[in-house]
Specification:
Layout: H1 2-6, H2 18-43, H3 61-69, H4 75-84, E1 88-93, E2 96-101, H5 103-112, E3 118-120, H6 124-130, H7 139-151, H8 156-177, E4 183-185, H9 186-203, H10 208-223, H11 236-260, H12 267-273, H13 284-315, H14 317-332, H15 342-346, H16 349-361, E5 367-372, E6 376-378, E7 381-383, E8 388-392, H17 393-397, H18 437-454, E9 455-459, E10 466-468, E11 472-474, E12 479-484
Parallel strand pairs: 2-8
Antiparallel strand pairs: 1-2, 3-5, 4-12, 5-8, 6-7, 9-12, 10-11
The protein binds protoporphyrin IX containing FE.
Length: 489
C-alpha cells in the first residue's frame, strides 16, 4: 500500500508470485548496475549539471510523484534549485538520465531549438500506447501532420464553424446532466462533457451508447499513459494497453464507415481525405492513432481546467460576480435562442483572464520532455547527446520573481501586455506548442458562459485538496451543491 500511495504509477491489483518477482528484481538491479557503470565511463568527460541519479531504475521518480500527489508539483524542482544553486540540474526519471531546465531561459532554449538541438521525447508508456502519430513522431513527419491538422478543424475557419456546435452540445449537456441536480460531483460530469464534445467535433459521434463505451475505455487508457511500461496483468499499463486496443477497434469501424461517406466536416474525414496532395487516404492505423492522440491531449487537460475554474469561482465570490456580469451582458445582447459566435468569445476578456490565472496557478500540463539531439552546452555545463530534458510550467508559474505574489490568485496580471515572454507557458511554446489551444479556449468559454448564466454552486468540501495524477484534480471530484440562477438569462 505504501508503495502505491507513494507512486501512483505502480498499482498492481493482483500481486505476482514472489518466485517470479524476486529473481526479476535481482536481474533488473544487476542490469541497471552494469548500465550505470557504462554510462559513468561514457559521461565522465563531460562537465555535467549538478544533481543525483537517485535509486536504480526509478531514479528520483518517486520524489517527483510525491510532490504531485501532495499538490505541489513544483516542489521537486524548488528543492533541487536550492540544493544545487543552479537552474539547470540533472536527475533520473522514467529510467533515463535527464536534465531539468527551469524558468524562462530554459523554456526559451527548448522551445526555440526544436528539431535543431532538441527533439520531442515521451516515456516508453506513451510511445507504446500511442503508436505512430503526431505525438510520437518528430521532425519533418510531425511538422507535416501538424500542418495538415491546422488546415482542417484547427484552422481559423474550422474553429469559427465549431462555436455554435459547441454551444449546442453544451446547452444539451447542461440540460441533461446538470438541470435538476442538487448535490453532485463536478469532475466526472465535466469529464463526460469534454469527451462528448471531442467525440462530436473530432469524429461526429453522437450516439450516446458509443460515447459512453468509448468514455469508459478511455478513462482506463489515460491512467496508463504516464506509467511504467510494464505490460503484466494487474498494472495500469497492462489495463491501458487493452483499453487502447478496444478503442482502436471501435475507431477502425468508424474509419471504414467514413471511407464510404467522407463528406462530414469533422477531423476524422479531413485526415482521411487530405492525407496528401493526391487526396489518397491516410493509412487507417495512423488516422486511428491520431484520433487517440487528440483525445489524450485534449480531454483531461480541458476537464481539469474547467473543474478547477469552478473551484476557484466558488472560493472567490468577487471574481465570480465579475465573470457573471460579463457573461450576462453577452447573453443580453443575443436574440432568444441565438447561439454564440466568434465575436461573442472575443468579448469575454475578463473571463479569459480568470481562466488564464487558473492555468497559471494549476497548470494541467506540468511540463514535458525533450531529447538532446547533440551535446548541449548550457550555463557552463554540458548535457550529453541522447539525454532527456524536462521543462516545467509548474515551477515557472510559481516563481515570485516572474509573477508578483505568485501564490495569490490575481487575474489582473493578465491585463495589458501580461507576463514576460516564456514565463507563462501553460500551452508550451515553439513548434510543439499546443495544437488545441484555441479549441480549448473556445470550449472553456462556451461552457462557462452557459454555466454561470444558468447555475450557481457552492463547494461541499471547502479547501478540497488538489492532487496531480498527472493532471491537477480535486481529490474527491469536487462535490458541489448546485442551484439554478433565479434570474437565468
Ligand atoms: C487547457 C487545455 C490544454 C492545455 C493546458 C494544453 C497544454 C498543452 C501543452 C503544454 C502542450 C505542449 C507539450 C510539449 O511541449 O511537448 C500541448 C500539446 C498538444 N496539445 Fe494541448 N493542451 C490543452 C488542450 C488541448 C486540446 C483541447 C487539444 C485538442 C483538441 C490539444 C491538442 C494538443 C496536441 C495535438 C498537442 C501536441 C502538439 C505537438 O506535438 O506538436 N490540447 N498541449
Amino acid at each position: 500500500m505504501w508503495l502505491q500511495r507513494l507512486c501512483p504509477l505502480i498499482q498492481p491489483t493482483r500481486m505476482l508470485p514472489f518466485t517470479i518477482v524476486i529473481p526479476l528484481l535481482l536481474l533488473t538491479i544487476l542490469l541497471v548496475g552494469v548500465m550505470k557503470l557504462r554510462r559513468r565511463t561514457t559521461t565522465h568527460q563531460y562537465n555535467l549539471p549538478p544533481g543525483s541519479s537517485g535509486w536504480p531504475i526509478v531514479g528520483e521518480s518517486l520524489e517527483l510523484f510525491r510532490g504531485n500527489s501532495e499538490g505541489v508539483p513544483e516542489k521537486f524542482i524548488v528543492d533541487r534549485i536550492e540544493r544545487y544553486g543552479s537552474h539547470v540540474f540533472r536527475t533520473s526519471l522514467f529510467g533515463e538520465p535527464m536534465a531539468v531546465l527551469c524558468g524562462p531561459a530554459g523554456n526559451k532554449f527548448l522551445f526555440s531549438n526544436e528539431g535543431k538541438k532538441v527533439g520531442l521525447w515521451w516515456p516508453a508508456s506513451v510511445r507504446r500506447l500511442m503508436g505512430p502519430s503526431l505525438v510520437s513522431k518528430s521532425g519533418e513527419e510531425a511538422k507535416a501532420q501538424k500542418k495538415m491538422m491546422m488546415m482542417g478543424l484547427f484552422s481559423l475557419e474550422g474553429l469559427v464553424k465549431c462555436i455554435p456546435i459547441m454551444d449546442e452540445v453544451t446547452r444539451h449537456h447542461l440540460a441533461t446532466h446538470w438541470q435538476g441536480q442538487g448535490e453532485m460531483k463536478a469532475l466526472p460530469i465535466i469529464k463526460h462533457y469534454t469527451f462528448e464534445m471531442a467525440c462530436r467535433l473530432f469524429m461526429n459521434i453522437t450516439e450516446p451508447q458509443l460515447v459512453s463505451r468509448l468514455f469508459t475505455l478511455f478513462n482506463v487508457f489515460i491512467k496508463g499513459v504516464i506509467s511504467m511500461d510494464i505490460n503484466l496483468p494487474g498494472t495500469r499499463f497492462y489495463r491501458a494497453m487493452r483499453a487502447a486496443d478496444a478503442i482502436r477497434k471501435e475507431l477502425r469501424a468508424l474509419v471504414k464507415q467514413r471511407r464510404t461517406a467522407p463528406d462530414q466536416l469533422d477531423i476524422l474525414s479531413y485526415l482521411q481525405v487530405n492525407a496528401d496532395d493526391n487526396r489518397k487516404f491516410m493509412p487507417e492505423n495512423e488516422v486511428v492513432n491520431n484520433m487517440l492522440n487528440l483525445l489524450f491531449a485534449g480531454h483531461d487537460t480541458s476537464s481539469s481546467t474547467l473543474t478547477l475554474i469552478m473551484k476557484y469561482l466558488a472560493e472567490l465570490p468577487g471574481v465570480h460576480e465579475k465573470v457573471l456580469k460579463e457573461q450576462r451582458e453577452i447573453a443580453a445582447s443575443k436574440a432568444g435562442g441565438e447561439l454564440l459566435n466568434w465575436d461573442d468569445l472575443q468579448r469575454m476578456r475578463y473571463t479569459w483572464n480568470v481562466v488564464s490565472e487558473v492555468l497559471r496557478m494549476t497548470s494541467p500540463v506540468n511540463g514535458s520532455f525533450r531529447e538532446a539531439l547533440v551535446d548541449i552546452d548550457l550555463e557552463g555545463y554540458t548535457i550529453p547527446k541522447g539525454w532527456k530534458l524536462l521543462w516545467s510550467a509548474a515551477f515557472t508559474h510559481k516563481d515570485d520573481s516572474l509573477h508578483q505574489k505568485a501564490m495569490e490568485f490575481d487575474e489582473s496580471r493578465f491585463e495589458g501586455s501580461g507576463p514576460p515572454p516564456f514565463s507563462y507557458v501553460p500551452f508550451g511554446g515553439g513548434p510543439r506548442m499546443c495544437l488545441g489551444k484555441e479549441f480549448a479556449r473556445m470550449e472553456i468559454l462556451v461552457f462557462l458562459h452557459n454555466l454561470v448564466n444558468h447555475f450557481d454552486w457552492e463547494l461541499l468540501i471547502p479547501n478540497e485538496k488538489i492532487s496531480y495524477d498527472p493532471m491537477p484534480t480535486p481529490v474527491q471530484g469536487l462535490p458541489i451543491r448546485l442551484r439554478p440562477r433565479v434570474r437565468a438569462v
